[in-house]
Amino acid sequence: MGCYLIIFVIGPFCSKAQENLKFDDNFNLWNIQKGQSATVFATKAYVRAQPSLKAAIVDSLSVGNVVTITSAPFKGNTLKNFYAPWHQISYFEGSIKKSGFIWLGLLALGKQTASDGSQYIYGFERFTKSINEQEQDHFSTVVKLLDAKGNFLAEHTFPFAYSEQTFSQSKLLPAMGLQNVKQIIRIEFLGEACGIPSEYNYVAWTGQRLVDLPSRYSVSDAGVFYYDEKILFPSEHGKNNQIIYKYIEEGEAIDDDAENPNFKITKKSEEFLWNGNSFEKLSTAK
């Protein structure tokens, strides 16, 4: 029972309401350093004369604009229910180089560019605190798709229950054998310490809209327990159907050998049918 209690307390299913979430100025999910480029995530991002909400607005940038980080972080502010620092930036408007300060939460966590030049940009819209035990504290995470000219095509929102993950990255995948799918973006929030979960979210582009696919999740505490989910798409399992398989394995230590513990292992699976526009769960775990 111990491992399941730990999962409940530290994992994304924790229902305890938090205060406004605060990211560390230097170590956070953006992992942006001085000299690196970053992409604007917000529809309109204000550039200010100083690193403060009280400072004058000197310019505004649009989603997809690229900036260069030119400073270490400055003490931040809380917007959209979460705290993040400010950075000084530089950017070009035509041939004119400009500079100012931007709040980190207005920048994308990541971006993927397809072969046709279209861009998948993702970031946090806001942090939402739970109002009852049935809900989770979560970030409304948004994927925005722009065409090669920077025109808006679509967006999709999914919840991410932040549990002290330290790193985010993404990968652009092909259709993976799913009908009516152009591309899939996999967005990862990774835990790099014991007991910190890693989440993998999949969003498909059908050519008309962005839609959810089944997600997967893993967490472990060395020598105590592990929980791992794997997903196989049609092009991976080769069964010539439109079913997405999720395989789940749980292990709970049954002795006190810290070096080579023996685990009680439980395996189960779930199946999801893709109909060309959305998926439905076909079976419960078995």
From TrEMBL:
Domain of life of the native organism: Bacteria
Name of the protein: SH3 domain-containing protein
Source lineage: Bacteria, Pseudomonadati, Bacteroidota, Sphingobacteriia, Sphingobacteriales
